[in-house]
Every structure is written in structure tokens, then in C-alpha cells.
Design a protein that fits this description.
The protein has 136 residues and is mainly alpha-helical. It has helices at residues 16-33, 38-46, 62-68, 75-84, 89-93, 96-99, 102-126, 128-131, and strands spanning 51-53, 56-58. A hairpin with a 2-residue loop joins strand 1 (51-53) and strand 2.
Length: 136
């Protein structure tokens, strides 16, 4: 049994929790600003990145990805939006997301398993029958 997992190179994989966290943050920003579409939010916060080519507007569509949870904004974006729209970072940085973290859950399960094993050992070592004096 391996006790230490090797660290994998690269960015950690996104989880369902990352997706949910991003979508909830997007909705918080959307409601707080009154801009209910990804397009209107992108126009508001990244309007300088819109370009017109052959009569069509080209835009990054990162707000669409955040709305769908397919990408996660960086902490610098979260802080910038929070500086513009107060208390939106709270939704993204809330401690509850750590409680849902897969590694934390796995660690909790490992600790619970260890405690169960210790309980079994304790019962075996300190059973009343073992502690009672022997009759000779």
C-alpha cells in the first residue's frame, strides 16, 4: 500500500466542484450587476477586447465559458471583479468549497478509517476480559 502519492506534473484537473463554484460566482456577478447575459458582462468588463471584423463583433467568450463552468477565472480576475462589484469574490472564495474538495474528503475518509482501526485495536487491547485479574 502506497502512503505517499507522487505529485503529477501540470495543472490539476478541474472537478465538478470547480465547475459549480464558477457557475455560482458567475450568477452572483450577473445578479449584482443586472447584466444577465455573458455577452453583457463581457461588454461591461472586457469591452476593450471586442473587435469588429467584416461587420461582425469578435469577442473572447470567456464569460460564456465561466457561465457554463467550462473554464475557471483566475484569482486576479476574481479580485478585479470584486473591486468593481463588491462582495462577489465571497461566492468564489467561500470556505465551503474546501469542504467539498476531493482530496480533503479522501483525507477525512482516511482519518475515519484510521480511527476505526484504532478503536478495534483498543477493544482488543483493553477488553475487560483482558484487564480482569486471572484467577490462579
Amino acid at each position: 500500500m502506497k502512503l505517499v502519492q507522487p505529485v503529477k506534473a501540470g495543472r490539476p484537473k478541474r472537478t465538478v466542484i470547480d465547475k459549480l463554484r464558477t457557475m455560482i460566482w458567475f450568477n452572483a456577478v450577473s445578479i449584482r450587476t443586472g447584466n444577465l447575459t455573458a455577452y453583457s458582462l463581457e461588454r461591461r468588463f472586457d469591452g476593450d477586447k471586442f473587435t469588429k471584423v467584416d461587420g461582425r463583433w469578435i469577442r473572447p467568450r470567456k464569460w460564456d465559458a465561466w457561465k457554463n463552468g467550462t473554464r475557471t477565472p483566475g484569482q486576479n480576475v476574481i479580485e478585479y471583479i470584486d473591486s468593481q462589484i463588491a462582495e462577489t469574490a465571497w461566492w468564489f472564495n467561500h470556505p465551503i468549497w474546501e469542504a467539498f474538495d476531493e482530496d480533503a474528503i479522501k483525507t477525512t475518509r482516511r482519518v475515519e478509517d484510521l480511527l476505526l482501526q484504532l478503536k478495534t485495536i483498543k477493544v482488543a487491547l483493553f477488553d475487560e476480559a483482558l484487564l480482569s485479574p486471572r484467577k490462579i
